[in-house]
Structures are given as C-alpha cells and as structure tokens.
Design a protein that fits this description.
168 residues; mainly alpha; Arp2/3 complex 21 kDa subunit ARPC3; 7 helices; globular; cell membrane; Rod shape-determining protein MreD; transmembrane helix; Cell_shape_determining_MreD; cell shape
C-alpha cells in the first residue's frame, strides 16, 4: 500500500469518526449541523479513477447513514457530490484541473473556498431535499442548506488549512 492510499484510508476513518461521534451531536437552533465528512470527497486525489471515488463516496455516505439512522440521504448526497466534482474543480481551478496539477495544500485560498463552497451547497441542498422530500417545505430546506452550509464551509476550510502540510 502506497503513501497516498494509506493517507486516504486514515482520512476516511478519521472524518467518519469525527462526523459520527462529534458533528452529528451538534445542532444549533434545531437546523444548523456541520457535515465535515465531505472533506474526504473534496480532497480525494484527482488522478485516481472516478469510479473509485463514486464507490468510496457511497460507502462513506452509507456509513454516516447507518450511524445517523438517516435512511440513505447522506449516501445519495455524497455520490452526487462525487459525480459533480469534476465540474466543480474545472470551474474553481480552470487550467490547473485540465493539466491535473492541483495540489490542495498549496493552491490559492480563493479557489479552495470557491470549490468547497459550491460543493457544500450542492451536497447540503440534495441531502436536505431528500430528507424533507416535500416541496411545501422548500423554505425549510433552503434555510437548513444556507446555515448548515455556512457552518460546514467555515469548518472545512479551517480543517483543510490547519491539517495541510506545506511541502517546499
């Protein structure tokens, strides 16, 4: 097992445990929850096969669903995020993505925030829409999406910045 696979396995386990043990029990005002497990999908290596990302994202979402008793909404939202990830990378990083030369620990902070923000809002909107599954509650879905996204974006960017190693 090489270094990249090992670090991804460790990242998978740590983010899953932090999500299940800590973040699932945070509930501000009844609708603001952080979902930091999606950091794994954001930081998954670009050069890896896309099918592997989809399968691993499904497993990650399914495990969060099992521990949260949420009926598959995390799995669906995680797979959706993994599927749309190339579009997000291209819109946030442009030519760096075309040449597959993105290094998340040394990229521009503005591009990183754009990438994390777009992906988080899409993930949360899909997840809360499936959770509510009623068009008459669209304002609740939008409110939960907005506030949980803000909280998740702030935590995700801080975690990525704090735990990234600058290699020179």
């Amino acid at each position: 097992m090489n270094n990249i696979a090992g670090s991804n396995i460790i990242r998978f386990i740590i983010l899953l445990l932090v999500q299940v043990v800590i973040c699932n029990h945070i509930n501000f005002f009844g609708y603001v929850n952080p979902y930091i497990y999606i950091i794994f999908i954001f930081l998954f290596p670009i050069r890896e096969e896309r099918l592997i990302l989809l399968i691993v994202s499904f497993m990650l979402g399914l495990l969060v669903d099992v521990f949260s008793d949420s009926g598959g909404v995390h799995a669906a939202a995680a797979v959706s995020l993994a599927y749309i990830r190339p579009v997000l990378l291209k819109s946030s990083y442009g030519m760096l993505y075309e040449h597959q030369s993105i290094k998340f620990n040394s990229t521009d902070i503005g591009s990183l925030i754009t990438y994390i923000s777009l992906g988080t809002v899409i993930h949360h909107f899909i997840m809360f829409s499936l959770e509510t599954f009623n068009i008459t509650h669209i304002l609740l879905v939008l409110k939960k999406t907005l506030f949980s996204s803000i909280f998740t974006i702030i935590l995700s960017v801080l975690i990525i910045i704090l735990f990234s190693r600058k290699r020179k």
